[in-house]
Write a structure and sequence with these properties.
Layout (H helix, E strand, L loop, with lengths): L2 H29 L21 E9 L3 H14 L8 E9 L1 H10 L6 E3 L3 H15 L14 E8 H6 L9 H9 L17 E2 L7 H15 L7 H4 L2 H11 L2 E3 L4 H11 L6 E5 H10 L8 E4 L7 E2 L4 E2 L8 H15 L1 H9 L38 H14 L3 E8 L7 H16 L5 E7 L3 E9 H13 L9 H21 L5 E8 L10 H8 L9 E8 L5 H11 L4 E3 L4 H11 L1
Parallel strand pairs: 1-2, 1-3, 5-6, 5-7, 11-12, 11-14, 14-15, 15-16
Antiparallel strand pairs: 3-10, 4-7, 4-8, 4-9, 12-13
Helix pairs in contact: 1-2, 3-4, 6-9, 7-9, 7-14, 15-16, 15-20, 17-18
């Protein structure tokens, strides 16, 4: 066989393998209900490719996941090559913007190209890279790929009560509603109670950082030239404090908040900061689960039209010239009109505003296609100084948390499980805000409260030492541990309410098995220890199913009953799971 035919055969084989991998990935995703979080996707493993092929690994923020999966499949099937004739295969991993930034800077992830949700993450990466090698991580400007505007997801009847889609709704509207003791009575609907809001954590999620930056712009009354002094001003901090005291959920990703709204119903959260694309996707793909449709509200004073820049990391020592060339070829493919039109089908907006919008970007599906950067001002992406200040005032003014870590130390945890659980738990303690409260409970044959929750800054070192000394033995009193943990945190909550203090309450429940003691039955736990209906301001339980033998069914029921979220982990991923939980509270 001639050399040309061999090369052609290799290209075809690689293409089929790439498409097969995508199909397999989608099939796996289709089996998941989206509620269980596993290990990190911010540090994808490298893939070996045949000789004569150049692999472009792309770490892309998950907002544009469905679009990029289609574009990558089409690109790989087209048989593109570099100038030297090497076949190009693109492999995309869907990541969080903040998590992928940290993974790249730590060396845990080494993609050829990177596409976070907003230019602000690029600036942070370039600043960090300049400190190391006196040059940015990407030699050329990172080009935008699509628009994914940030705003509010709200139940349609509630949004219409505020005047959507024709009445302007800004951050000031949200703050006034959140801080009004009459709640929805302000708009003639007292039966809806107090306004309940959620947003992702700005230190971990692109949607959280951009939402909080948009908030600052709106409260400061600016559309550009924002300064750290504006951010730390009394009016901005007062408004943020009002909002955060009525924020019932944080998170690592906006879709997780929308998932909670879908599962828990209209009384749990009334609105959440989210990208337009996520709101549309939930309405269309999960509409049967929703009590009412959601709508996307553009903040009237302006929003950040997240443009998802595409960066070729050619100043990193792991990217060679051929890979950079191949990455540029894929970038140009992304920006071609055909792929930009395909973005609309995947709930995104093309960069070229002359491309007419169509279904699914319609009022019927929950967004206003009349809105454009010409009608709702595009706010500048936050630079490194602005990002740092926004995250700082959020940390200062956020609703503080009381956490109880409940750790299985039964005999089945012996060996690598208990070692990694100890180290990951000790590290988790250091991630908590100094003014949060944390305590530790362990269980095997019996349940033992090692330390009741106390201010993190006062107890973190001592708690870490105690956790690092945990030993595994005995049976598993899982149900009794849940009941005692809920009682312990419930007593603290009652005392705080009497003192007029508003906090978030969470229990992290780590177990690798099922209940083997039986002093408290499963039904007894569910019927007498857990609430009949989850409340946004109630005690949330975050179970971690640690290993293959964990009773995932009952752990999921515990999470659902309390409005928490179940995570699955093994010794390799437990650290990332704890990272996700730290963003929840």
């Amino acid at each position: 066989m001639s050399r040309t035919r061999i090369i052609f055969a290799i290209i075809i084989l690689i293409t089929f393998l790439a498409i097969g991998a995508i199909v397999l990935t989608q099939a796996i995703r289709s089996l998941s209900d989206g509620r269980t979080v596993t290990g990190s996707s911010d540090t994808p493993a490298a893939t070996a490719v045949p000789e004569g092929t150049v692999l472009v690994t792309l770490a892309s923020s998950n907002t544009k996941e469905s679009w990029l999966d289609q574009v990558v499949a089409n690109f790989n099937a087209a048989g593109q090559t570099t100038r030297s004739g090497q076949a190009i295969v693109v492999e995309v991993s869907h990541v969080t913007s903040g998590g992928s930034l940290n993974a790249i800077l730590d060396g845990a992830s080494q993609p050829v190209a990177w596409s976070p949700g907003d230019q602000s993450w690029v600036e942070q990466a370039n600043d960090a890279w300049r400190l190391r090698v006196n040059k940015p991580i990407a030699s050329a400007t990172c080009q935008p790929t699509i628009y994914a505007p940030l705003g509010f997801a709200m139940w349609r009847p509630m949004a219409e009560q505020l005047g959507w889609p024709d009445t302007p709704i800004g951050w000031d509207t949200i703050v006034e509603l959140a801080s009004d003791p009459e709640g929805w009575g302000r708009y003639g609907r007292p039966e809806w109670g107090q306004f309940r809001f959620g947003h992702s954590h700005p230190a971990y999620a692109n949607s959280g950082l951009l939402a909080m930056t948009s908030f600052v712009y709106g409260i400061a009354g600016k559309t550009d030239n924002l300064t750290p002094a504006d951010i730390y001003s009394d009016p901005v901090q007062t408004a943020l404090r009002e909002l955060e005291q009525n924020t019932s959920r944080y998170g690592r990703q906006a879709p997780a908040l929308l998932d909670l709204m879908a599962r828990q119903g209209t009384s749990y959260l009334h609105a959440a900061a989210a990208p337009e694309s996520d709101v549309l996707r939930f309405n269309i793909e999960r509409g049967s689960e929703l009590t009412f449709p959601l709508v996307f509200i553009f903040p009237a004073d302006g929003t950040i039209w997240g443009d998802h820049p595409y960066c070729i990391l050619d100043n990193a020592d792991w990217v060679d010239t051929e890979e950079a060339e191949a990455a540029a070829i894929f970038r140009d493919y992304l920006l071609a009109r055909e792929q930009q039109e395909l973005a609309i089908d995947n709930y995104l907006r093309p960069l070229d505003t002359s491309i007419p919008l169509h279904t699914p970007l319609t009022l019927e599906n929950g967004t206003d296609p009349r809105v454009s950067p010409a009608t709702v001002p595009p706010l500048p992406s936050p630079n490194a100084d602005i990002s740092t200040a926004v995250i700082d005032i959020f940390t200062i003014n956020k609703r503080k948390a009381t956490m109880l870590l409940v750790i299985d130390v039964s005999g089945s945890m012996e060996g690598e499980k208990i070692r990694t659980a100890r180290s990951a738990t000790a590290e988790f303690l250091t991630r908590l805000d100094a003014n949060d409260e944390v305590g530790v409970m362990i269980f095997s044959d019996i349940v033992t409260l090692l330390e009741p929750p106390a201010r993190v800054g006062d107890v973190v070192e001592g708690l870490a030492q105690r956790v690092n000394g945990l030993l595994a033995s005995g049976n598993t009193a899982l149900y009794a541990a849940v009941c005692q943990a809920v009682e312990t945190v419930g007593n603290l909550q009652e005392a705080d309410l009497e003192a007029g203090e508003s906090r978030l309450y969470g229990i992290v429940l780590l177990s690798d098995g099922e209940d083997t003691v039986g002093r408290v039955t499963e039904n007894q736990m569910l019927a007498t220890c857990l609430p009949a209906n989850a409340e946004a301001d109630g005690i949330k339980i975050f179970p971690i199913a640690f290993g293959a033998d964990a009773d995932k069914t009952i752990l999921q029921r515990i999470a659902d009953a309390t409005g928490g979220r179940m995570f699955t982990a093994d010794p390799q991923s437990i650290g990332n799971v704890y990272l996700s939980i730290s963003a929840e509270q």
